[in-house]
Amino acid sequence: MSGFDLVVRSRRVVTPEGERPLAVAVRGGTIAALAPYAEPPEAAEHVDLGDTVLLPGLVDTHVHVNEPGRTEWEGFATATRAAAAGGVTTIVDMPLNSLPPTVDAAALAVKREAAAGKCAVDVGFWGGAIPGNAAALRPLHDAGVYGFKCFLSPSGVDEFPPLDDDGLRAALTEIAAFDGLMVVHAEDPALLTEPAGPTYPEFLGSRPGESERRAVERVVAAAMDIGARVHILHVSSASCLEPLEAARRDGVRITAETCPHYLTLSADQVRGPEFKCCPPIRDTGNRDALWDGLAAGVLDCVVSDHSPSTPDLKVPDFAAAWGGISSLQLGLPAVWTEARDRGHPLTRVVDWMSTRTAALAGLTAKGAIAVGADADLVAFDDTADFTVDAARLRHRNPITPYHGRTLTGVVRTTWLRGHQVTDTTDPTGALL
């Protein structure tokens, strides 16, 4: 009888200690041993990747699945297939754009029922903090959400309204009582305006970077007063880096993320509404500064903010088009393409997109190739190029700003707890 279920070996295994040759041995869905590459232990199945890199599965903590209620935008079956194809083995679903939004335990139960049996990767859930639901936050926490999302400006859907300062502090006070985490869409509505016209420059001008900075400062002040844990979502403006860094020096428990589109695209490249998102893609100097903030650790992690819609909502008028980027399957190659050109090793990309995102959500069995961790593994060819064809992506609607763009890095194989995930395998993802 073989000692292990599976051994995957590579001369380039990315571990918390760096990249090294190893044989990764799996038993019962868990990494049970790490052995020398040249001395793999006995197993029922052996895979030798040679010089193809073996990564821990990515953890994307910012995904809008939209099921139930808006499943024609995106659903659990399609979103999780796209995730697996892109090397993402765990997603955490956002509480809005589905109906009902995940703002109480009953709505969470509805969402979990909708997801059951459909998921190709593991799925966790954020709860939502909206005006008047402070009493629902602890029951949501007890039911298993990983934290709570709020908006400080309109969310784009009426059923998920924003919090004003009093509402933010009330929610933070409740969440701090059980040491939960608040994740914040930080734009100050006082600095947002209606676009003056249909073009992208007019849309960009309506959402200045200062609106993000001022909102971050409001969150910092509230978190400092209350002692709450907070996380700033999808930082697009480098003006946020200074208050984030200052808050950490002052002892505020604050983290922040950015997204592939802010790190790889710029305003001068915007061609159509598939590029529209909130906050918006800004200029190249801002993009360079975000990279500096990421390299310095002021920004902790990189997530997709996959927020799809049906094609009819992506009208040519930037003022009216749905704001959301579809990129769940493309985050790893998009970030790696740019990171490599800027001199960052693949180990840093794994840290930003797997290790730190797992830590953000408290997913202790995810985010690393280490004994005792879930055997979520990705064979990644980090030198292969491909041209993005939106029609061939696994998410539901064939829309992405990366269409036609050449990226470097191809996911060859994805394993979820030691089992290979393909388009034809039965969905075995767990609801976390």
Automatic annotation (TrEMBL):
Cofactor: Zn(2+)
Signal sequence coordinates: none
EC assignment: 3.5.2.5
UniProt pathway: Nitrogen metabolism; (S)-allantoin degradation; allantoate from (S)-allantoin: step 1/1
Keywords: Hydrolase, Metal-binding, Purine metabolism, Zinc
Keyword NAD among UniProt keywords: no
MF terms (GO), sorted A to Z: allantoinase activity; cobalt ion binding; zinc ion binding
The keyword Hydrolase is annotated on this UniProt entry: yes
One GO term describing the cellular component: cytoplasm
InterPro entries documented for this protein: Allantoinase, Amidohydro-rel, DHOase/Allantoinase_Hydrolase, Metal-dep_hydrolase_composite, Metal_Hydrolase
Highest taxon listed in the record's lineage: Bacteria
Domain Amidohydrolase-related: from-to ranges: 53-421
GO biological process, one term: allantoin catabolic process
Family named by the database record: Belongs to the metallo-dependent hydrolases superfamily. Allantoinase family.
Binding partners and assembly: Homotetramer.
Official protein name in the record: allantoinase
